[in-house]
Amino acid sequence: MDKQMQDVLELLEQNAKLTPEDISEMTRIPPEDVTKMIESLEAAGVIRYYKAIIDWDLVENPYVYAFVQIKVSLERGHGYQKIADRICKFPEVRSLRLLSGEDYDLEFMVRGRSMKDVAFFVSDKIATLGQVQNTSTHFILKTYKEDGIVMEEPEEFKRLHVSF
């Protein structure tokens, strides 16, 4: 992958709404070449999806999110893929990652309408899977930064009025 493609990917990762014309202005790559580059990156599976970052705290019925870490026993010949495929099928699971270290093997983010929904999902759907040895659930109380985006605008500095 050349430097131009890397630049286009980084710009799209920062702002997926950029048009080929916007990217062209920033990189000096002709817009037609940017369009072809993006199409080839999509076709190759390098660009998987475009998404918006939502501040659910500002929505009337927000979701509850939690990170769940699990320790699993592996089946001979399958590694982590079999359990990962199974967990990925749950619509509540937003992301899933293989971890290094000794304590836990996999970590996923789960979304529900309440802490109770998330807790029951973990206890009823995940902990009961045959390969799962134990789980650890960490509820997200506040998000300060998501995918490089600060979720709160900094307060404006206001000078105090001084009167004599």
Can you put this structure into words, describing what you see?
Keywords: DNA-binding, Transcription, Transcription regulation. One of its GO terms (molecular function) is sequence-specific DNA binding. It comes from Methanolapillus africanus. Residues 1-81 form the HTH asnC-type domain. With 164 residues, the protein is α+β, with helices and mostly antiparallel strands. The protein has helices at residues 3-14, 20-27, 31-43, 81-88, 115-126; strands at 64-72, 93-98, 106-112, 132-139, 145-146, 149-150. The mean pLDDT is 91.
Total number of β-strand segments? 6
Largest sheet: 4 strands, antiparallel
Q: Give the helix tally.
A: 5
- As an assembly, this protein is single chain
Helix amount: 25-40%
- The overall pLDDT average reads 91
Q: What does the overall shape look like? A: flat
Order of helices and strands: HHHEHEEHEEE
- End-to-end distance: 66 Å
Strand portion, in percent?
A: 15-25%
Rg, rounded, reads 22 Å
Instruction: Give the spatial strand order of the biggest sheet.
Output: 2-3-1-4
Low-confidence runs of at least 5 consecutive residues: none
Structural class: alpha+beta
